[in-house]
Amino acid sequence: MTGKARAALRAEAHHLDVKVHIGHAGLTPSLMQSFDDVLRTHMLVKVQVAKGGELSAKDAAHQSAEALQAEVIQVIGRTFTVYRENPELMHGELPPWRR
Prior knowledge:
This protein is an alpha+beta fold.
């Protein structure tokens, strides 16, 4: 992904609400399934990591992105943003996260 495309997605993600919360248990199989479902329907997802968990936001971002074949857009504090393109949702004028 180019830097320009990543910057555009960062700007889009600024206004998004957190869709996935990673708790103290970390990246469990059930959480990853839910995360995959959210990525499939929204493509651009903001995720928040619990304070007391053993996993840092940076580690969680890279591990989840690798497992879900997605790209980390940004990591700020305990929040990170992940993007995975879904060609089935790329019709129409607005991207799925704006609908």
